[in-house]
Amino acid sequence: MTALQPGDPDWETKVRESFARQGIMTTLGAELTQVEPGLVEIAVDFRDGLSQQHGFFHAGVTSTLMDSAGGYAAFSLFPADSSILTVEFKINLLAPAEGERLLARGRVYKPGRTLTLCDVEGFVIGPKGQRICAKMQQTLMRIDGRADLPAAG
């Protein structure tokens, strides 16, 4: 497979600055753990506020982390004057997200001029090691002429 090429020479700064503006990632306590063209990992440590009634990571937390990981994987390839929106995703929750840390790995598998498709995996890390807990297929839309900047207040 040919290496994916970013459309912006300052792609990594663009991704990191956009991530820092996402209030939901701050609320979750999430962090970027890997940033490469077409591949982004985001992780969060477990705490009670992120759990469902059985003490696992809530599916909403899992899908939120995975949506952002795939979104930033796609965004890393976009030109400087563009932004991104998720069009749709389909998630399969494969196992309870029981662990000390949740990791989402988003990877572009079909870049496009308007639509980009990503494959996203969710893993839990704990005493049993790293185990997959979810898979997502995601479609993202590139919005040209609208740089990913904070909204004017």
CATH-scheme architecture: Roll
Percentage of residues in strands: 35-45%
Terminal Cα span:
43 Å
Reading off the top of the CATH hierarchy, the class is best stated as Alpha Beta
Structural class: alpha+beta
User: Count the helices. How many?
Assistant: 3
Counted beta strands: 6
Helix share, percent: 10-25%
* H-E order: HHEEHEEEE
Overall pLDDT, averaged? 94
Oligomeric form = single chain
> What is the CATH topology?
Thiol Ester Dehydrase, Chain A
Number of domains: 1
Q: In which order are the strands of the major sheet placed?
A: 1-2-4-5-6-3
> Main β-sheet, in a few words?
6 strands, antiparallel
Radius of gyration over C-alpha positions, nearest whole angstrom: 15 Å
CATH superfamily: Hotdog Thioesterase
Overall shape: it is globular
- Low-pLDDT segments, ≥5 res: none
